[in-house]
Structure formats: structure tokens, C-alpha cells
Design a protein that fits this description.
The structure is a single chain. The radius of gyration is 18 Å and the shape is globular. The longest helix has 19 residues. The protein is α+β, with helices and mostly antiparallel strands. Helix 6 crosses helix 7. The chain contains 8 helices and 9 strands. Strands 1, 2, 3, 4, 5, 6, 7, 8 and 9 form a 9-stranded antiparallel sheet that branches. Among the domains are: 71 residues, Gyrase A, domain 2 (2-Layer Sandwich); 55 residues, Arc Repressor Mutant, subunit A.
Length: 219
Amino acid sequence: MRYAEFTLVPEGGWFHPFDRVVAEELEVTREAIHHMKLLNDGTAVMLYEFSGEYEQVERMTERYYGSMVHQLSRLGDNALVYARFEPNETVAELLSIPEDYEIVLDTPMVLTDRGELRIRLIGDERAIRRAMGAIPANIGVTMEATGEYKPGSERLFMLLTERQRETLKTAVELGYYRDPREATYEDIAAALGRTAGTVGEHLRKAEVTLMREIVPTSE
């Protein structure tokens, strides 16, 4: 079984009008889409994760989805939004690809800082190539990685945001997690062109996300 990871760039900067609503909220950040599916009646459902002030996420969601089926809940410091919505033609075409070409759309789907969507398709090589050809023409496509699919660690890595993954990968490469430690926040910051404070924030959030998935709880 193979995987292929792509970055999708929507024409006009967003896939759906809700993305424009999110972009207007300066204190809210799109983190990931954990589930999105096209239903038989033509509507779609999604499970979206946001970081930022919970009350702002609540107001934003109510402003757009007020008359539609939606739910909001906390996930640690973040917020999860479930919504049922009317997809536009582009989103409907994208969501029909997994069933049409018998491939799996892996989750979570990660949203980059630039509003792009990073997705991973899983299937045999021929099916993935055919699915790529079905991506709507008004969406830019960049191949990021491909290889043999190995469940587990790759799924965990995809739970992180783009910046968290980049920071964590650099930290590992520089020896931050070796014993004894061979790198500092300052070393990682210099390699990435960021501040040490930003590096520390990204690593702490990445560690919280990974530990939450790895360590069993009594809940």
C-alpha cells in the first residue's frame, strides 16, 4: 500500500466561504480537519479543530452555521467544531474522489499557515495517480511526499501543525532529544530563522499533542 501527500492551494485563497469567515478572526487559527465526508443527500459533514479563544470560535461558528446543524466542544486548549453544510462544487468534487477512485483520504488534514490544505491519499499507485487527475482544475496541487504507507507513527506526525512538524523534525535532527542534549532552542531557532520563544512554544504544543495520543488515560 502506498501513500502520497499533497498540498492543495484553492483559487481565491479558500475552499469554502467559511474559510473566509475564519480568516477574518485574527485570534483564531485553523489547525486541522479531522473528518470530512460527502453525504448521499449532497450535504457534507466536517470535524474542524481550531486554536485560539474558545469564545471567539463559538461566536464565529454561530455567525456562519447558526441556522445549520453544528456542535462545539473543547479539546484541551483548542476547540472542535462539527458542522453539516452545503458544499460548493469544488469541495463536492474533492470529497467524491475517495469513493470514486477507491482510495482512502487519511486524517487529519492539516491546514498550513498560508491557508493551504495538506492531504494524504492511501491506496495502490495506479489509483492514487488517477485520483490526482480528478482534482478540480481550480486547485493548485504540489506533491510533497510519497512512499510505502506505515500506519501509526505517520498518523501521529500528521496530528501536528506544519510549523510544529518542521520544528520537531529540526529538533530531532540537531540532537535536541538526544541524551545528553546536543542542541538548544537557540540552535533550532537559528536553523529555522525563528525566535527561541517560538521554537519552545511549537515544541511544547507538539509534545502535548503526541503525549495525549500515546499515554493512556483513565477517562
